[in-house]
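Entry type: protein chain
Record version: 2
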Amino acid sequence: MKRDRIIQERKKRKLKRSELAETLGISEIYVRKIESGTVKPGRDTILKFESFYKIGQKTLFPDIFLIVNDKKLTKTS
């Protein structure tokens, strides 16, 4: 799942991935993987994005904070 909001915020600020990575103290490859949704960032990294963009983590990473009810209902006789 691509994280569109993070990409939009970076582009709105006219930042390259490498510039964002340097600012946040993480690798450019990690930024790319976070934006593409192939990795779930750790708590510290989420806080770095939240602090930099001044946007809540649930807005930036909705897929991580999505509540899914995976319980299956079964019929009982």
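Comment: The CA atoms of residues 21 and 30 lie 8 Å apart.
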